[in-house]
């Protein structure tokens, strides 16, 4: 087993890139959860993360004490956030394991730290997550796998600098949301024939319109 040159820990098998991105896009779209081979890792549960819970997630809400929840900023009534304790740990993490795993919120079900190496981004504010994310290694059995990964990184490199640019570009500042956005718009950066795909630079206005649509903002 190969060790990661940065962390000194064994590499983690992330899977074939094209298969993974199809799966993660389905998770982002709410079609299903993410199947992440965490192997006991709790970095996302111990990194001072706020977990959003929607009003429709009654099963999760039924298993979390109301005093642990508070209204989610800038969201309609009914949307809440589960905070963390003084150590930065999720209060539902007990004995190193999620005590409500079968009833965990949608945010937890869809979280996948492979989005960071996919987009070529580091979650520097969350060092435990960053350390784990650096260990993932994708495989590329076809040319499309390689091109799609290059396209995701090209999308991240294209939209990232616009986080502090014109308000016409509704690009999130949060690095996780930025990685997810890059995955969402990466198709715009893939051209050529289906059998011979290539990375292309799309028309910026096309990208802006798609970002605006995905962010749910009226143009």
Report on the architecture of this protein.
The chain is an alpha+beta fold and 219 residues long. The chain folds into 2 domains: 1-31 and 141-219, no CATH class; 37-111, no CATH class. Helix content is 33%, strand content 14%. It has helices at 17-28, 58-62, 106-110, 115-119, 127-133, 143-159, 175-185, 204-214, and strands spanning 12-16, 51-53, 69-71, 80-82, 93-94, 97-98, 136-139, 190-193, 196-199. The protein has a 3-stranded antiparallel beta sheet with strand order 2-4-3. The protein has a two-stranded parallel ribbon with strand order 1-7. Strands 5-6 form a two-stranded antiparallel sheet. A hairpin with an 8-residue loop joins strand 3 (69-71) and strand 4. Helix 1 (17-28) packs across helix 6. 31% of the residues are buried. The mean pLDDT is 91.
Brief rundown of the structure:
The protein is an alpha+beta fold. It has 2 domains: 1-31 and 141-219, no CATH class; 37-111, no CATH class.
């Amino acid at each position: 087993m190969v060790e990661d040159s940065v962390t000194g820990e064994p590499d983690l098998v992330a899977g074939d890139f094209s298969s993974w991105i199809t799966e993660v896009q389905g998770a982002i779209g709410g079609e299903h959860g993410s199947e992440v081979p965490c192997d006991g890792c709790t970095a996302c549960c111990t990194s001072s993360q706020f977990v959003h819970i929607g009003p429709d997630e009654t099963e999760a809400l039924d298993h979390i004490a109301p005093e642990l929840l508070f209204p989610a900023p800038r969201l309609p009534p009914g949307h809440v956030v589960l905070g963390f304790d003084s150590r930065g740990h999720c209060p539902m993490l007990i004995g190193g394991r999620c005590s409500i795993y079968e009833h965990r919120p949608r945010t937890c079900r869809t979280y996948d730290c492979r989005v960071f190496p996919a987009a070529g981004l580091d979650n520097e504010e969350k060092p435990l997550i960053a350390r784990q994310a650096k260990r993932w290694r994708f495989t590329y059995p076809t040319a499309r796998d390689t091109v799609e990964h290059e396209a995701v990184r090209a999308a991240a490199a294209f939209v990232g600098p616009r986080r502090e640019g014109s308000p016409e570009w509704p690009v999130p500042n949060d690095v996780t949301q930025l990685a997810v956005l890059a995955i969402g718009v990466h198709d715009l950066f893939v051209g050529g024939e289906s059998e011979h795909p290539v990375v292309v630079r799309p028309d910026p206005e096309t990208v802006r319109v798609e970002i605006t649509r995905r962010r749910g903002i009226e143009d």
